[in-house]
């Protein structure tokens, strides 16, 4: 058996060893906690003095460790076996609880770290979610904004183009309805009455239907333009302004060359309420028409009043075989007998032409013609002022010398004078029968059409130089003062 001194020495050795182990554990704890505190929060000051605790443990000669941690709960201790030696009993192990160091700063740091980490995660997640959720909405708004601006620019450009050119190739039924409401009372029906004789010389009354357009007015009268062939040979012309509103008219003047005529009706013959609804039509500029522009024809085809047909401008400045000196507007809007003298209007409700069924092709569909408004207005103004259209003329009748005839007789192409009217400008200037007219001023003349077209550029009273060949060999230039020729005045 071990003597008392040996037991005391052994006990002291054990106690010193235990104290050293505690010191090592505390140092490790200090090092771990310190590193954690430095990483999680800066400028946090450690206030616990672990060395003092170690010294206290050594001084108390391994007193129960739990007594060195005042205020520490029992849950903070960890069970550990420490050998206790008794001089009378064999050594056995007893349970002693060793405190685990827990500092408030560490707890706070852990809590703070968790709060910061969770808060950051939530914040990032929230905004990321918001971004993801709003990305589609943002894109939609951007697309709508861009589309709106894009459409606005297109609309602006198209509107400017339409305003400048008058083109509008897309028009709805509602638009046509509004156009008719605005101009319908400016379009009238015309019935011309004439007397004809049958094979047995019996007198019969014949009627013809057509249309007209109120073009102007004064205090007493409405001026109506129509086709000349509508009223040609009529003994009586009546105008239908509205249902049950039929009045007589008076002829102002006509021009057979352009197939235009002007008549008037008295305002005193018209119901006062209807007068408030009637107004002259607005006249557009036919020279600015473009192929493909909307065209609306309004008239009384076959006697069916106030008929509206819609189409487009098929061609401008179209020459028609029946009159090579005139050019017309071609449209696919239906123009039938009775439409003659009616209105062809554009998408703004402006008059751009006077329809003429006289020159419509009867063997095809979709080909109607109208006298351009600007040419019409020039004629109408003269008819209203003078009752006729004055045109320059020289007073000759001739035949064309074509290329084959010119080669056969070895003479130039031109107009061979067959007769000279008495007291005409040609007779006064000395032009003779069988003279060959080959030019006017600086322009060549190859046929009668050329001569008529060239003379139309001048006014009555102008002097022109007529180039001619006399006796098939003598070239001459004769000054001719142009005279005035009117359909109703010779």
For the structure shown, list the relevant keywords.
extended; alpha+beta; 490 residues; seven-stranded antiparallel beta sheet; six-stranded antiparallel β-barrel
What does this protein look like?
The termini are far apart. The chain has 490 residues and is of the alpha+beta class. 33% of the residues lie in helices and 32% in strands. The protein is built from ten helices and 23 strands.
Shape: extended
Characterize the main sheet.
Answer: 7 strands, antiparallel
Beta-strand content estimate:
25-35%
What is the β-strand count? 23
Radius of gyration: 57 Å
Mean pLDDT: 75
CA-CA gap between termini:
173 Å
Helix content: 25-40%
How is the largest sheet built, in terms of strand order?
Answer: 7-6-3-4-5-9-8
Structural class: alpha+beta
Total helices: the number is 10
